[in-house]
Amino acid sequence: MSRREHFTLDFETRSKDPKMADHAALEPWRRRQGKAEIMSCDILKPDGSVLQIVNDDQELFSYRLRSALAEMKGHVCWAHNATFDVAWAIADLQPNRCGQIPQEVMDIDWRDTGLLTKWLINGQVAETSHFSISLANLVKTFLPEHPDTPAFLEMKAQGVKAGENTAYWLERGTMDVKMTHALAMKLIQKVPESMRVGLMTEFECIIPVANSWITGFRIDQKLLADNHDYYLGMKSRIAKEIGVSEAMFSSPKQLGKFLFADMSLTPHSYTPTGNAGTSKGDLMWMEYKLRLAGHNDKADILRKILEAKESATIYSKYVKTTYEALAHTGDGFIYSSPRIFGTYTGRMTYSNSTTSKDFETDEKTKFKTSIAMHQIPRKAKRVRQMLQPPEGFKVGEFDAAGQESRLMAIRSNDPVMINIFQRDLNFHSMTGASIIGMEYDVFEERRKAEDGEGHYTEARQRGKLTNLACNFRIGGKALSEQAFEKYEVMLDISTGNHLVKTFAKTYRGVPQYWDSVIFESKTQGYTEAFGGRRFKLSDWQTHRWGTESSAIMVPIQGSGASMKEVAITELKRNVPEFNFALDLHDASFGYMQEDKADEIFKKAEDCLNSIDYSKYWGFKPPIPLPYDGMWGDNFADVK
User: Fold this and answer.
1) What is the SS3 assignment for 508?
2) pTM of the model
3) Which residues of 404-425 are buried (b: 16+ CB within 10 A; e: fewer)?
4) Cα–Cα distance between 220 and 388 in angstroms, integer?
5) What's CA 478's distance to the chain center, in Å?
6) Which end of the chain has fewer CB within 10 Å, C or N?
7) What would the pLDDT profile of 352-398 be if each residue is shown by its tens digit?
8) Pick from 194, 160, 206, 161: which is nearest to 348 by CA?
9) pLDDT digits over 14-36, tens only?
10) Are 178 and 135 in contact, with CB atoms under 8 Å apart?
């Protein structure tokens, strides 16, 4: 075939262990454990014929699968939830964790009908209606006139469990590829030209993201045990010191009685149901007020309660859950299931469990496979330390430096911001100097002379706080609350107002951007990020403030998501030996072979800092978009 043809692929999978029948078929990393397998592979060819490969003999099946994939070299292959299918293909053909991804997989242009649909419908209506991206719902919605739709939906509704009724699954695999192909061919025609490069870039992330799923995170068992003793011990010690039960720290009712009845404290706020607030923010504000009033003994108790609550949370979410996940996975690794385009801004998310549904009772069971990676507190270094790369590998991390601020500079075209980043000035110092009314050069000279502590260093920190808070509209009161509850920095409301006004006055292009993007979004019906991802806006009357906020935020955070996908794509093309492992906030993590780690890291660093964004965004950014990086033995070493 001389031109690029469109194939469609679907795997049906099954557990090899009857005890794992409820979940193993949904966990592609089980293939390497020998606990699950691909039952059948269906490939719809460009001529309309379907090749079905049934796994009656594993060695023969893998051989035939490799040959079938090789036939698609240089061509397009559609799948629904392609990350799942590609993960199974890699695991089937490459038995080694962090081994080279099979060339037969790499040579295919993988595409996903689920991602395609999200690019087309992404908006407030889809978000508020919780529109399902399941293949059955998409066929029902977009292919109502297709002659096979009734039979397809009837088959999907039968609720046959994976591994049961082989004839059913073989027929379903064939129907899946036919309907996936019909869906792809209809929807791809609807993609506007401005979206195409961004969409194709996202498709190119499928292979490395799928590979990261089946690679997982090794857990240092000794550090896990140490964390068990440390966090449980801290909670127990504090409970004894203040004379309460450990259960109080996780019970709002018990804590409320202790604070407001036993200690006779005044609540800072109330919940919607009228109960006195016992959240972290409430406790912090009460502690602050007590110290102002000179009641340090009571304030000290609140500080200990805060420490105990944090320890209890870390223990429950990251220690106890790690034990649960390890008991489920059984191989010393935990596995987070990735979701490309997980949020409406395009950011990636992860699931830490496998969900199994009983079709007779409609009940769902969740099996823990990982922890909430995106929620690990920055201070919880002990948790990050127990997350390790596979044996023989190091972990590398690359962080997009000042990403949101740089993207705001580009999007708003603010001349002061542009000048700062073009000349590599200190953005936070510039804002700090503006706050206290001083020239930047004088401010920086005096700050550097303080050697990390003093009036100007503190002013820079205030500038940093202002920059982090003020990109997306905020009032002085909200800024003062955020400063205290997030960073434990006390600002009165008048100071908060001053910081907000200083930001708007210093970077006048930013509030002008807010106004212009709101107007454009109302006119177009959507807001748009670099790379073409759109978010449709419709709730201008019923939720005006939230809709305006989305219009402002999506072009910045959506462009950050685009940067991440560009980075993953560039690394895949140019540094394949950097094994992508995790997307976390503005950073990309990957595993590097131990004896070549320094070489691979430098190669990846050069790659990321020489990206030609004009290929992806249609213009050359007027300022650098640099990446900073580190590498080490565990995830705490690099973050």
Assistant:
1) coil
2) 0.95
3) bbbbbbbbbebebbbebbeeee
4) 7
5) 26
6) N
7) 999 887 666 668 889 999 999 888 887 789 999 999 999 999 999 99
8) 206
9) 999 999 999 999 999 999 999 99
10) no
Nearest to residue 511, comparing CAs of 624, 408, 421, 420? Answer: 408
- For CA atoms 198, 353, 330, 56, the dihedral sign is negative
Nearest CA-CA partner of 639 in 581, 571, 578, 587: 587
Query: 181 CB contacts (<8 Å, ≥6 apart)?
Result: 6, 8, 44, 78
Computed on alpha carbons and rounded to an integer, the radius of gyration of the chain in Å comes to: 27
Contacts 24+ apart (CB under 8 A), 324-328: 324/368, 325/352, 325/368, 325/369, 325/370, 325/371, 326/219, 326/224, 328/367, 328/368, 328/369
The Cα-based distances of 114 to 180, 187, 213, 547, 572 in angstroms read: 10, 11, 18, 25, 22
Q: Is 246 exposed, middle or buried (0-12, 13-18, 19+ CB in 10 A)?
A: middle
CA angle, corner 174, sides to 161 and 353, nearest 5? 40
Q: Which amino acid is at 502?
A: T
Q: Is 303 helix (H, G, I), strand (E, B) or coil?
A: helix
Structural tokens at position 227: 């964390």
pLDDT in tens, 609-626: 999 999 999 999 999 999
Cβ neighbours for 449, distance < 8 A, ≥ 6 positions apart? none
Tens-place pLDDT, residues 102-148: 999 999 999 999 999 999 999 999 999 999 999 999 999 999 999 99
**Residue 211, both tokens:** 């590979």
pLDDT score recorded for residue 360: 64
